Amino acid sequence: MSAELEIDWTRCQGRGLCIELLAADLTSDPWGYPSARRADGHQSGTVILAEDQREAANEAVKMCPLSALKLRTSAHQ
Amino acid sequence: MDELMWSVARTSGMISLLLLTGTLLVGIMARSGRAFGGLSRYTQSLLHRSFSLLCVIFVMLHVLSLLADSYAKMQIIDIFVPFLGDYRPFWQGLGTVSFLLMIAIALTGLLRRHLGQRVFRGIHLTAYLMWPIAVAHGLGTGTDAGTLWYRIVTVISIGLVLAAAIWRLTANYLDHSATRRLAREGVKL
């Protein structure tokens, strides 16, 4: 089972809750919007979640004030 | 029994007012997108939700105890239709109006993820209408409205909410507002 967190940037207003909850996976751009931490430095709206981040991600989805996050799980890798 | 119900009604009304003011203040704080000292953005959102749901519970207690209090002469219909009451109908009616708004705000808040952002936000913003109506209801018909301590609490509440509302309208209210302004003006960072 793998899980991905999808950021809908058309809804996002960069309130920053998810960056607090998922500090290891998300980083803030200069304008306060979240993006996935990637080694190559490119911005991405898709975060591949480690198993131990699932609970925090669920909470981020639930508490996002703009309902801009979605969790996607797939049974096969 | 009436004495007890009346006490419960007064106390729960007062606590509701404090919780409502707290909800509004933390809501305005959270909306700015800033962390405040020990209060992370996440904590502020949790507080906003907890205060508001607690407030719903205390308002329910307030309404139910008044229904049970024969002196208040409140009928079931007074919960849903304003200004029909026997006892200070105008001021009681304001309570009904803010109660109905509160139910609408609470339900759309809980169903937020299933509603469009526009519907949620439109109804959520009526909180700014509901709060002064509730404050007026308390001042107009609250048993303790004449006491000094009630007036002090009310004046402090109004002062805090006004200050927060004015802050919300200022240009640098949002976190990152300065860099976002630059971005809109086309300045590359």
Notable characteristics:
heterodimer; A: about 80 residues; alpha+beta; Alpha-Beta Plaits; two-stranded antiparallel ribbon; 2 helices; 5 strands; B: about 190 residues; mainly alpha; about 75% helix; elongated
Structure overview:
The complex is a heterodimer of chains A (77) and B (189). The longest helix of chain A has 10 residues, at 54-63. In chain A, the strands form two sheets. A three-stranded antiparallel β-sheet of chain A has the order 4-1-5, with helices on one face. Chain A has a two-stranded antiparallel sheet with strand order 2-3. Chain A has one domain (2-74): Alpha-Beta Plaits, CATH 3.30.70. The model of chain A has no long low-confidence stretch (mean pLDDT 89). Chain A is an alpha+beta fold. The radius of gyration of chain A is 12 Å and the shape is globular. Chain A starts with a strand and ends with a strand. Chain A is built from two helices and five strands, in the order E-H-E-E-E-H-E. By secondary structure, chain B is mostly helical. Chain B is 73% helix and 0% strand. Chain B has helices at residues 2-31, 41-68, 76-80, 89-110, 117-124, 127-141, 148-169, 177-184. In chain B, helix 1 (2-31) packs antiparallel against helix 6, helix 4 (89-110) runs antiparallel to helix 5 and helix 4 (89-110) packs antiparallel against helix 6. Chain B is elongated. The model of chain B has no long low-confidence stretch (mean pLDDT 94). At the A-B interface, helix 1 and helix 2 of A face helix 2 and helix 8 of B.
